[in-house]
Write a sequence for this structure.
């Protein structure tokens, strides 16, 4: 493998993994410490949903599980993800809910429903995520289509958070965003789960993308108006000094996802499949 191809693979992972990793990642990263929290638009959802709620008395484990299940059921957008998980990976569903219940019984601190979704997605990604790379092309493409929709929504809220999200740096602000955009966040989570289900059933083996595949990507980015500085920042991590402004980098990242959809088969699915496989190992 050439050095150029190795760098491509690293950046493909970093950029394509960002959205799926973001929903299942922890908080309090360096990015949050170095940047002030942006103000998100009020969309009618509870922007404080990521703050744990203190119960009046510690429940036993059974009561704690009922409490968590009631919270999930009261959030229909997320309830459909958990219902599909219970149907397809029953043992994983039970393990996640039991662990959440044990923690609630021990700490008497109920987490937000957004946390329960993000942590469950993280668990499924690390335990079964590699199966998504073996899915049929349509469910694989849907994963990245939903990622792009979330990135576009983040971009409308705050360009700085868009860049952080693009590179996988998540924080409390993104959790607040998730609370205000639950339909598209749950769509993204469900797309990932359906790709895993498809991969488990189909078990399609694919070759890794070649250097020629990545040349196609670079040429397509240039055809969409990205200059060499922007392409290098996306594909090689060569951030200029001074760095690109947030709005410009955010727009370039969206173009990147849009261009990937236009790559011819099988190059597109090979790139997508590699990203899904590597995400499962991260």
């Amino acid at each position: 493998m050439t050095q150029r191809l190795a760098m491509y693979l690293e950046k493909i992972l970093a950029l394509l993994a960002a959205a799926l990793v973001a929903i299942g990642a922890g908080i309090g990263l360096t990015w949050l410490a170095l940047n002030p929290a942006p103000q998100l638009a009020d969309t009618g959802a509870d922007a404080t949903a990521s703050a744990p709620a203190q119960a009046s008395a510690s429940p036993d484990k059974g009561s704690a599980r009922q409490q968590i299940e009631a919270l999930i059921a009261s959030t229909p957008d997320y309830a459909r993800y958990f219902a599909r998980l219970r149907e397809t990976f029953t043992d994983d569903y039970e393990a996640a809910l039991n662990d959440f219940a044990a923690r609630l019984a021990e700490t008497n601190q109920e987490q937000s429903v957004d946390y329960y979704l993000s942590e469950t997605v993280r668990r499924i990604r690390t335990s079964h995520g590699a199966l998504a790379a073996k899915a049929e092309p349509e469910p694989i493409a849907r994963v990245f289509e939903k990622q792009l929709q979330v990135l576009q929504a983040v971009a409308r809220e705050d360009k700085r958070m868009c860049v952080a999200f693009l590179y996988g740096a998540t924080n409390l602000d993104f959790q607040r965003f998730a609370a205000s955009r639950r339909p598209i966040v749950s769509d993204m989570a469900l797309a990932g789960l359906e790709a895993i289900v498809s991969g488990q059933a189909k078990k399609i083996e694919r070759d890794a993308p070649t250097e020629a595949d990545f040349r196609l990507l670079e040429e397509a980015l240039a055809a969409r108006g990205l200059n060499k500085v922007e392409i290098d920042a996306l594909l090689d991590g060569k951030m200029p000094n001074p760095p690109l402004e947030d709005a410009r980098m955010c727009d370039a990242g969206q173009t990147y996802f849009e261009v990937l959809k236009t790559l011819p088969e099988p190059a597109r699915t090979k790139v997508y499949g590699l990203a899904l496989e590597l995400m499962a190992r991260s």
